[in-house]
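Dock magnesium ion; give full complex structure.
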Amino acid sequence: MVRTIAVHSFRGGTGKSTITANVSCWLALQGHKVGVVDLDLAAPGLHLSFRVDRSMIRGTLNDFLYGRRELSEVIIDVTQHLSIENGKLYFIPASFTADEIIRVLREGYDAALFTDGIRAMARGLNLDYILVDTHPGISEDTLLAIAACDVVAVVLRLDKQDFTGTAITLELTRRFGRQPLLVVSQVPKAMVESIVRRIVESNFHYPVAGVIYFDEDVLEASRTREIFVLTRPEHAFSKTMGEIAKRLAGLV
Ligand SMILES: Nc1ncnc2c1ncn2[C@@H]1O[C@H](COP(=O)(O)OP(=O)(O)O)[C@@H](O)[C@H]1O
Ligand SMILES: [Mg+2]
């Protein structure tokens, strides 16, 4: 059975796409078959992390949702492209043209098509995991991603607005009967991990899957489009990504 993991946060810029890219690559490196979907249709970005350019894209998630392409036509096998030797990594990009983004925002799309689509993708490719990168905040997409997934990684930073928003996301996740795991992101280096865990767990009463420190190297990697777990597996950030991947994947 596939395990589907949504990566969400109430506010933007928390590190969702960075986490999605690294966690999915880490799981693939372990030999798993992994699918990644860019459901951040309003601000897609994962194609950048995966170094997928126009020449590799036959169609996007938008094309599938509007009936212009079969799902099989829009899935890109990025395993070799990213030099991953063990498992498999498949990616469904979102359209990054202005017209398509406006259409999604104006018209929405058929939610059932998305849910059925990722189930069919899991069956067809015999996937172990699907990660869904989402748009921040609460929108129809959020509800859809939460409803369609088994686990919701709720990413937050240690600031007041993130805390308030996270409470709302957690409440929604609970109502859908889904399992939330908290990921604390961009934590200042001066803070002690055990204290961060205690603050967050005592506030929300859900388990913390990992604490990610703010790291200049990670920021720089987004500029050079590097996926840390692939290029710098010994880096502290990559180790943290591995720990989070194991928790999200239910391996520990
Ligand atoms: N742990 C981190 N340390 C430093 N910079 C980070 C970290 N995580 C993410 N970033 C940077 O923050 C920005 C937003 O990250 P991104 O993954 O795109 O967030 P989101 O998908 O939630 O909007 C990017 O420039 C990214 O490189
Ligand atoms: Mg993002």
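Observed: The pocket of adenosine-5'-diphosphate (ligand 1) is lined by residues 9, 12-18, 45, 185-186, 212, 214-215, 218-219, 222 (CB under 6 Å).
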